[in-house]
Amino acid sequence: MVRPLCERVTARQAHHRTAAAGGAVLLDVREEPEWRAGHAPGAVHAPLSALRAGAPVPAAALDRPLVVICRSGQRSQHAAALLTRRGRRAVDVEGGMHAWAGAGLPVVDAGGNRGSIA
Questions:
Q1: Mean pLDDT of all residues in the chain?
Q2: Domain 8-102 falls under CATH 3.40.250.10
Q3: Model's pTM, two decimal places?
């Protein structure tokens, strides 16, 4: 069994950690077309490609723990490990947005309508 790069949480645990005001931020690291097709309401977008290039996390995610999500959980593991190395508290969502939607949690598109996982 391969050891994860960082702590992992389930989609329901991620929802719980990010639901409370002032709680953790759900940081979606998928690329722009994926984000536009469907993301969790209230999530903050920061593509992994930008983070790898040295971009900081968006202002909305500063000074708060991060719950990192992607489509399936691969990119979010790498992003959470990268952010942890930068001194941030970050965990990733096992199974990503597929697990989020599979748990019956909401997904919206860029217009705020029912979204899909691309």
A1: 93
A2: yes
A3: 0.94
